[in-house]
């Protein structure tokens, strides 16, 4: 977590200092703190199938979760709940993931430093790459307070619009000129990501991969990791390939 205002559940156990080595699902949602309820539905779906960590007489599904603030868009009283989390599990498949204003990206917006009226829609996106027989993939719900920029040119490609709505404002350039920003509250944005590989990694290596993956946020969002964002990345290693790999290669192969 690099943002100053994260909304999360079951994330402290992911520290390499703590005991749990395996999680059974990761949940991303909108709805601000209300959206964390969706993780309960994910737990129920897993529990019904006997999936979880064996603890005494029970199996406890381990479901780390993170939410983003999207209550600016649409009806703020409509938020993900446990039924939403359960339905997401029912709908899950090995087919390519839906992208755009779906799932955790349904109400996402970017470029909010001049007010939500001058922002643009964000959303959910994914990409993957295979290097040396090992696949690395990323899934990101982009709901940044800042602009999305082209890392090759540094120019904004989505974000805050001019007052007439006809062009991109260029948030960082405007800030450096001293232009007045809209007052923003902590936790009113947040970009969430998952990076995953089929390589074999230790828990400490997975944590390092998540840390390095934040470089992708820094290259593609400006400003990023602000007081209004709760930017969080989860890293997963399934080990399905059975192969170990150089962590530097894996982490810097993540699509950015």
Topology:
Blueprint: E1 7-9, E2 27-29, H1 38-48, E3 53-55, E4 58-60, E5 65-67, H2 82-91, E6 109-110, E7 120-121, E8 123-131, E9 134-142, E10 147-149, E11 156-158, H3 171-176, E12 192-197, H4 203-220, E13 221-222, E14 232-237, H5 247-253
Parallel strand pairs: 2-5, 12-14
Antiparallel strand pairs: 1-5, 3-4, 6-7, 8-9, 9-12, 10-11, 10-13
Note down, in words, how this protein is organized:
With 256 residues, the protein is α+β, with helices and mostly antiparallel strands. The chain has a single domain (7-253), classed as L-amino peptidase D-ALA esterase/amidase (4-Layer Sandwich). Helix content is 20%, strand content 22%. It has 5 helices and 14 strands. The strands form 5 sheets. It has a 4-stranded mixed beta sheet with strand order 8-9-12-14, with helices on one face. A hairpin with a 2-residue loop joins strand 8 (123-131) and strand 9 (134-142). The longest helix is centred in the C-terminal third of the chain and has 18 residues, at 203-220. It is globular, with a radius of gyration of 19 Å. The two termini are 17 Å apart. The mean pLDDT is 93.
């Amino acid at each position: 977590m690099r943002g100053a205002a994260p909304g999360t559940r079951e994330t402290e156990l992911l520290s390499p200092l703590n005991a749990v080595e395996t999680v059974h699902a990761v949940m991303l949602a909108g709805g601000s703190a209300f959206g964390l309820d969706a993780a309960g539905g994910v737990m129920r779906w897993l529990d019904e199938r006997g999936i979880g960590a064996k603890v005494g007489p029970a199996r406890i599904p381990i479901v780390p979760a993170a939410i983003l603030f999207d209550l600016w868009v649409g009806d703020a009283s409509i938020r993900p709940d446990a039924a939403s989390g359960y339905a997401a599990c029912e709908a899950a498949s090995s087919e390519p993931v839906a992208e755009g204003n779906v799932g955790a990206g349904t109400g996402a917006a970017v470029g909010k430093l001049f007010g939500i009226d001058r922002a643009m829609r964000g959303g959910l996106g994914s990409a993957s790459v295979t290097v040396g027989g090992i696949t690395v993939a990323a899934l990101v719900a982009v709901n940044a307070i800042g602009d999305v920029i082209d890392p090759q040119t540094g120019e904004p490609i989505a974000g805050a619009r001019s007052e007439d709505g006809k062009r991109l404002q260029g948030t960082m350039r405007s800030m450096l000129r001293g232009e007045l920003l809209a007052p923003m509250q902590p936790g009113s944005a947040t970009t969430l990501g998952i990076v995953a590989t089929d390589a074999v990694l230790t828990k400490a290596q997975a944590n390092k991969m998540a840390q390095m993956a934040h470089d992708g946020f820094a290259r593609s969002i400006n400003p990023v990791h602000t007081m209004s964002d709760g930017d969080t990345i989860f890293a997963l290693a399934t080990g399905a390939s059975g192969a170990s790999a150089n962590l530097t290669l894996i982490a810097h192969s993540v699509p950015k």
